[in-house]
Specification:
Elements: E1 5-8, E2 14-17, H1 29-63, H2 66-73
């Protein structure tokens, strides 16, 4: 079961709704391929978001580190 549903709007755009789930049995083979590709893209985007958050947390913690402040004062940081 996919944890999202692709909703087609009347103007031709498609929206991904994460509040709905899509069972495998409700999809045609072509739709299944599309859902699998989108599922992979969502997983990659979530992984990149987690990585960016970890990096920003690391930089925030480093900024308050007294040794880092001292290194910056001496032009090493």
């Amino acid at each position: 079961m996919f944890n999202f549903r692709i909703i087609s709007c009347p103007d031709g755009t498609q929206v991904i709704d994460h509040s709905l789930k899509t069972p495998y049995s409700a999809l045609t083979p072509v739709q299944m391929t599309e859902y699998m590709e989108i599922d992979t893209q969502i997983a990659v985007m979530e992984r990149l978001k987690r990585k960016a958050k970890r990096e920003s947390d690391r930089k925030r913690k480093l900024k308050w580190n007294p040794l880092y402040k001292a290194a910056c004062m001496f032009g090493l940081g």
